[in-house]
Amino acid sequence: MSKQQQYRQALQQLGKVARQAVSQPDIDRFLDYALEEGMKLVGGFRAFIALVDDDAGELVIHSALGPGWDEEKRQRRLQVAQEEGKGITGYVAATQRPYCTGDVNHDPHYLKFFEDVVSELAVPIVDAYGRTRGVINIESDQPDAFDEEDVSSVALLADLCLTALTLHQSRVRQEALVQIGNELSTSEDLDDLMRTVLDVAAKVLRFEDCSVFLIDDDQKRLILAASSGALKEQVGKVSYPLGEGLTGWVAQHGEAVRTANPREDPRWRGIAIEMPVEQIGAFLAVPVWGRERTIGVIRVVRRRSLAPWFDNCFTDDELEVLSAIGSQLGSAIESLNMRHRLVQTERMAAWGEMSAKAAHMIGNRTFAIKGDLNEVEYLLQQPEVNREELTELIGSIRRGISRLEEILHEFRDFVMATHLSTGVDNVNNIIAQTVAEIFPRRGPVELKLELDSRLPDIRCDAVKLKRCFAEMIENSLSFQPEGGELFIRTGLVDSRALPVRLGVARNKQFVHVQFCDKGPGVPADIKEKIFQPFFSSRVKGMGLGLSIVKGIVEAHRGFVYEDGVPGKGACFHILLPVNGKPSGEQTDVKER
Amino acid sequence: MYRILVIDDEEEVRHALQRRLQREGYQVDVAEGETDGIEKIKQASPAYDVVITDMAMENPDSGVRILEAALAHDLFSEVIVLTAYGNVANAVECMRRGAFDYVEKNIPGVDVYELLVLKIEQALERRRSAVNTLRRMEEITRRLTSSMRRGD
């Protein structure tokens, strides 16, 4: 083959690699492929690509080709080189210049690892920030196997590898950032949100530690709200005055701070640090943006690298990524606060209405009881006491008092619905107990039970759930006074199988409990309203029954809805999350 | 015998009132709420002498609607409004529109039934005198008309 033919062939091969660099979604497969092409191109017999492990600041073998490799050799090949502080690969990583030798045995940098190597060619992969990302190394058993053209070819290959690596990284980040938006917007409370933000930040950014501070408006201070590492125990305790230290400065000025050596910054105070300051190799803090102002700071730190050639500072890319997280977090916190305020307002309104309603009902009952007592008194004053009438009046008084008690019960249950005392329990057991306790054995309604034995145990308040299931049963019975059927079924369901309107986050599992009957059903226009306080048309209590059910289920972070066909029967669904952390959990958590 | 209509959506309340008022010697009908009450008022012939109604039933101002229906049917019917829970504003509105009085169901230390019986007696007294006045006016009108004819 002529030189020109060879050259043309080489170009064609590199062209293929270039196309793969942008189109192959699997970075590992691309690197293997690129290395193989590189080896063919320059005529080597063994080769590897080593990439910098960002966490350790060390080179790690990624792809390896040719004879003699095994897992142990892959592990040791570079370890040896780095420990000795020599070796061609390490030398190239540090100098960022290609290196080529035709006789390794007389080379000052060579460190013997395979017996058969004679020539070696190593080319660095260097990114746009001038940082070494890896080294391509090709070996030959022939003397003077590689020339200047080979070096250029492999250098070109190194650039293609860099392209693929950069693309891969931005793809991962892009996906993660989209995911951040989703996950943050479905977070249910601040704790959940903080956990999520630390998780997602760890997916897209490399850091030793990440902390989030939020501004407390009353105290004009930044208070630590979450931390992934050493400061975790200090959450809620550590705080910065606004403007103090690098973090306080970020909060006050609404601008990011990025430095390789925080100690040298005049704003540095060292108030709360994740690690001894001399160990910090990079510091990055960005504001958490609300709609109108900074509401906090999110910051990340990296440890100083042991490899002297390894620059550990945060890049522009990383600054942008953290800023994106900061603004996503800001809007998530604000929408959470808004939702919280809305719920508070609704509850307060319900409270007002409930007090009025309760007072009204208690007033009426008391009035009736007073009337009955008057009658008893009147009867007793008569010369001849009518025992029958007296007995009837006493029965009426007793009923009146018992209705007062029902109101008190319902009042208490409504108020306490969201205060859970959780343990670990199985919903099947709770259903079975409830049915055994309250379902009338000789009633006109036939009970069908279908309990799925695969149901996992969940964290829940068994007493509250019992109250909730009992309400569902009583509700169904009261609508089928002439007889009918109640079908209670449990099962396990995935969030994908649920109605979209519930707005359930993806990838969640729920214990599903159904109560279906053959009563009149719920008209379409009131399906949503039946869960509001006082909506019920039942005589008993105050009409809080289904709103208590809703309160209990929602405190478990669950859902309740009705979707039966009006006229054919009601069908209630209760969904309780598996692996959920109930929101109304009290501190006195007890295991059952 | 005087006829009284008791309107309340609470069964116990209706029952207790009916019992007590029957003991006082009245003929007592009951209605279960605003709609039922208005229906019974319209059907009554002769009209009820006294209507006793709860204020808040289907609507917070059910009492006002009952009052309007009662007065539309017979201007001299007397209406007494009961309130269970400090809903005095609506009760006062009823007074302004011509109710005889309002009685709160729960007054500590007061026998509200006794009070109600007293109010009913007063209401009946007012109705009697109003009806008498009307009759006298009718009588005078009749005499005047006939003397005017004779004077033709």
Quick structural gist:
Chain A is α+β, with helices and mostly antiparallel strands and 592 residues long. Chain A is built from 12 helices and 18 strands.
Task: Spell out the helices and strands of chain B N to C.
Answer: EHEHEHEHEH
Question: What is the averaged pLDDT score of chain B?
Answer: 90
Backbone structural class of chain A = alpha+beta
Distance between the termini of chain B: 44 Å
Q: Low-confidence stretches of chain B at least 5 residues in length (pLDDT < 50)?
A: none
Mean pLDDT of chain A: 85
Query: What's the helical proportion of residues of chain B?
Result: 40-55%
Backbone shape of chain A: elongated
H and E order of chain A: HHEEHHEEEHHEEEHEEEHHEHEEHEEHEE
What is the beta-strand fraction of chain A?
A: 15-25%
Helical element count of chain B? 5
Described by its quaternary structure, the protein is: heterodimer
Number of strands of chain B: 5
Q: How much of the sequence of chain B is in beta strands?
A: 15-25%
Report the sheet with the most strands of chain B, covering strand number, pairing sense and barrel closure: 5 strands, parallel
What descriptive keywords fit this protein?
heterodimer; A: 592 residues; alpha+beta; six-stranded antiparallel beta sheet; 12 helices; 18 strands; 43% helix; elongated; disordered C terminus; B: 152 residues; alpha/beta; five-stranded parallel beta sheet
What does this structure look like?
The complex is a heterodimer of chains A (592) and B (152). Chain A has 592 residues and is an alpha+beta fold. Chain A contains twelve helices and 18 strands. Chain A has helices at 3-23, 27-42, 71-84, 88-95, 148-185, 190-204, 245-253, 316-381, 387-416, 427-438, 462-478, 545-555, and strands at residues 46-53, 58-65, 99-101, 119-126, 132-140, 209-216, 221-227, 239-241, 257-259, 280-289, 294-303, 423-425, 445-450, 458-460, 484-494, 509-517, 559-562, 571-577. In chain A, the strands form four sheets. In chain A, strands 8-7-6-11-10-9 form a six-stranded antiparallel beta sheet, sandwiched between helices. In chain A, helix 2 (27-42) packs antiparallel against helix 5. The termini of chain A are far apart. Chain B has helices at residues 11-23, 34-43, 62-73, 88-96, 112-150, and strands at residues 3-7, 27-31, 50-54, 78-83, 101-104. The longest helix of chain B is centred in the last third of the chain and has 39 residues, at 112-150. Chain B has 152 residues and is α/β, with parallel strands linked by helices. The radius of gyration of chain B is 17 Å and the shape is elongated. Chain B contains five helices and five strands; from the N terminus they run E-H-E-H-E-H-E-H-E-H. Classes of the chains: A alpha+beta (592), B alpha/beta (152). Chains A and B meet through helix 8 and helix 9 of A and helix 1 and helix 5 of B.
